[in-house]
Write a structure and sequence with these properties.
The protein is α/β, with parallel strands linked by helices. About 40% of the residues lie in helices and about 15% in strands. It folds into two domains: about 5-25 and about 60-255, Aspartate Aminotransferase, domain 2; about 260-385, Aspartate Aminotransferase, domain 1. The chain has 15 helices and twelve strands. Helix 1 runs antiparallel to helix 3, helix 3 packs parallel to helix 11 and helix 4 (about 85-100) packs across helix 10. The structure holds pyridoxal-5'-phosphate. Pyridoxal-5'-phosphate binds near residues 112, 206, 218 and 220.
Length: about 400
């Protein structure tokens, strides 16, 4: 039977392991075989071992990580999924697999700050040049392509500033010039958009966020198409990056309810967005306002929106904006997001990285909200009370 991925997410354990509802956590360094022949055959043919994996050593994973890979492969509709111990491990693996000394990387300006540190700063000493394009003006992308450009690296929407880009256009430019493409798809996950189907070579998701959904584990996934598989596999073998089986188990547990949770995050976020959009001091950085460029680009490619949004707040008093955030009772203050709970962050401009294309004036302040699975009415009441402090 050809099951949809929604059903697949609920039934995977049964498809790969039939002795309990949940798959076992297989902790292993050494994998043992019945005979030397069986060991050599597994190595030679990449044959599946009895519990469903095809490994001859624990660094390649165990049957627990194998089950997680199968679930993600089904959802991404891709050739293969690599697992890493953090989301940033997948960012690193995607770049490390493709980039060599002398190459250039073209990066979306609003990428996740550590991605900027890796490319712009760290790789510089490896003779790799990083250039940035404006997410809302792809002529800046085209004009920066050179003979050395090897990879276009996109993050959509932009980190903290939430710009939505014309993804198909980026893919078609890259194809024309024979450049590899990668996208960080942590915000939406393949539940709302499938980048490999859209033509991207690599797609990154931090499993720490919505996949796990409970803020208790870290992990990353890198989905690839056939074209880049051999490069990533080769690099993956020598990085030593490996997701542990206990963490894989927790991510499998979270993934079963990914669709249900994301539907609810979206519903709650929409209600909060409707409330916030009435406040004249706030510009919502969320695909809510019909007719805006961001909304159009979101609508064109996405089947839904997650629970993470930005607020651009106009105020002469930064102190009052901090007071607004500090007065929230139902929002925790801390990094990361994608769990069941609501979070808030007042953001300093330097935390966004040295942006080339983001201009904020003195009277504009950024706040990031993750809208969790609480009763949205309670969240709105909490926000309404705290918003009074903004001067
Ligand atoms: C969190 C995040 C990462 C890194 O994931 P970790 O699991 O924290 O290492 C990468 N990209 C984006 C967009 C993120 O939000």
């Amino acid at each position: 039977m050809n099951k949809s991925f929604k059903t697949f997410l609920k039934h995977t354990a049964k498809d790969y392991y039939n002795q309990s509802v949940n798959p076992p956590v297989v902790r292993a360094s050494t994998i043992i075989f019945k005979t030397m022949n069986e060991l050599r055959n597994t190595q030679a043919k990449g044959k599946k071992n009895p519990t469903g994996g095809h490994f001859d050593y624990g660094r390649q994973g165990t049957s627990t990580t194998y089950i997680l890979q199968q679930m993600l492969k089904k959802m991404e509709e891709c050739h293969h999924v690599f697992l890493t111990p953090t989301g940033f491990g997948s960012v690193f693996l995607s770049i490390f697999s493709i980039i060599r000394p002398g190459d250039e990387i073209l990066l979306a300006d609003p990428v996740y700050y550590p991605t900027r540190l890796l490319t712009q700063d760290f790789l510089k000493s490896f003779n790799v040049k990083t250039v940035f394009y404006n997410p809302h003006d792809l002529s800046t992308l085209k004009s920066k392509i050179s003979k050395k450009t090897k990879l276009i690296y996109v993050e959509n929407p932009g980190s903290n500033s939430f710009e939505f880009q014309d993804l198909s256009k980026i893919v078609s430019i890259a194809k024309k010039y024979n450049i590899f493409t990668a996208i960080d798809n942590t915000w939406a996950t393949p539940y709302f958009i499938k980048p490999i189907k859209l033509g991207f070579d690599m797609s990154i998701v931090s499993a720490t966020k919505y996949y796990s959904g409970h803020s208790d584990v870290m992990g990353g996934s890198l989905a690839v198409n056939k074209k880049v598989f051999k490069y990533v596999e080769q690099a993956n073998k020598i990085t030593g990056l490996r997701l542990g089986p206990d963490d894989a188990y927790l991510i499998i547990r979270g993934l079963r309810t990914l669709d249900i949770r994301l539907d609810k995050h979206q519903e709650n976020a929409k209600k909060v967005a409707r409330f916030l959009s009435k406040n004249k001091k706030i510009k919502l950085l969320y695909p809510y306002k019909k007719g805006s460029y961001n909304y159009k680009m979101w609508k064109k490619y996405y089947s839904g929106a997650s629970g993470l949004m930005g607020l651009k707040i106009k105020s002469k008093s930064k102190k009052s904006v901090v007071k607004f955030v500090n007065s929230l009772k139902l929002f925790g203050y801390g990094y990361s997001w994608g769990g069941f709970e609501s979070l808030a962050l007042q953001q300093e401009f330097r935390e966004l990285g040295d942006r080339n294309y983001l201009k904020l004036n003195k009277n504009e302040h950024l706040v990031r909200l993750h809208i969790g699975l609480e009763d949205p009415q309670d969240l709105i009441t909490d926000l309404r009370n705290a918003l009074k402090y903004i001067k």
